[in-house]
């Protein structure tokens, strides 16, 4: 009989990065606050955590990240002004972010990598499994990846990573997983992990993307993990150690994802994400798609 596991309720969102690929826009504004249509990217991520049943969110921040806290806090002056104007629609949208989840914050301090950022969450998470969501990956709510990952972790234990298939020429940009099949078509057992391997050394073309459901044993493993690629403490390296175990924090499984994913960590992909999401909006889509068709047609004939 499968052992009952405590329900997962906490999500961790590392948000201490400098966002150098978006300079000068991110000189004074956190990259997580860059708008995707009319919401900051980070709000999509928090909404995803809440939709998966994780109402307790810890954000791991750094210097110059105060706008993140302000966004998820109340703004009484703005709310009062909108209420006086009778603008109930905008008032509801302003209040939406502050009512989403129970938000907590901790500073990473030294930028020692994703593994170190996750380790900063230990006092808040304790000895329960938890989810980690990276803000550069936006997952379409119609494709509930995180919900599926939590289901797999609750049944099989250990940790779970999200995997996508990429072209072999792109695998050097990601953590890469060696896998073997299980009895489920979208679930694999991870047998090894390599952070950003050279193409010829990659064990597969399965790339790890920014969603994890982690056993608390990850914390003790991270404390023993030496700085790896880039001189940073890599979460991939700690998960690699756990993938070798059957007990005491293992195993590691992967959920194969082929749904809609928007990468906001790259400038060109960020722009594509805005266009895609704007086209699908009921309030913006029809007019925007019409303009886009005209624009593309004119560009092709210019």
TrEMBL record:
Enzyme Commission number(s): 2.7.7.9
Stretches assigned to the Nucleotidyl transferase domain: 10-274
GO MF annotations in UniProt: UTP:glucose-1-phosphate uridylyltransferase activity
GO biological process: UDP-alpha-D-glucose metabolic process
Pfam families, alphabetized: NTP_transferase
Main EC class the enzyme belongs to: transferase
Keywords carried by this UniProt record: Nucleotidyltransferase, Transferase
Reactions catalysed: alpha-D-glucose 1-phosphate + UTP + H(+) = UDP-alpha-D-glucose + diphosphate
Protein origin, superkingdom: Bacteria
Family label: Belongs to the UDPGP type 2 family.
PANTHER family associated with the record: UTP--GLUCOSE-1-PHOSPHATE URIDYLYLTRANSFERASE
Xref: NCBIfam families: galU (TIGR01099)
Protein's UniProt name: UTP--glucose-1-phosphate uridylyltransferase
Species of origin: Wenjunlia tyrosinilytica
Lineage: Bacteria, Bacillati, Actinomycetota, Actinomycetes, Kitasatosporales
